[in-house]
Amino acid sequence: MAVVLASFLIGMSVNSDHVVFATHVGKTTSTAPLAWRMVIPLISVVACLFGSLSGLKAGRLLTQGSDGVLGSAVLVCLGIWTIAESLHTVFISGDSPFEAGFSETMFIALSRALANLCIGFGVGFMKLSVTATVASVFVCSVMTVLIPVSLRRHFIPIKWSRPLGLFSGVLLVAFGLFL
Asked: In 3D, which of 102, 108, 86, 98 has the Cα closest to residue 161?
């Protein structure tokens, strides 16, 4: 049960910054057809699943202790990256909303896919629950698509992006160090 809970929290933490990030996006994302908006969650889930299965397969080739160390290192590195990205947003680029077109949406999909691929590798190497991690990635990603932008802006103010991004990174580092 603890492994499933840890996997679920890891999947949520890697995508929690995306929930807040999506509130910055203007009218293009909220008015685009649902099929087009589902591209980001679909790419995220496929990348996480591919990374998890690859991590499980590659973990079989490693010695008993080294696979867990490698998985922990992946989570710690991704957590540090998330913290740095959050601090960059706070001190450099600010919290102003912007309009996302096709190229911006594809860039967001690529960044989400890379983050979820790394989480998949880490979870696979650590032999945590792949199903729970992929399910939490799916739920968090789809929430950002299905919940209207106006509700997200109401319940998750833009000013919360700072602590939520930092919390997400700290949670990933903590899981990497203590699992």
From this structure: 86
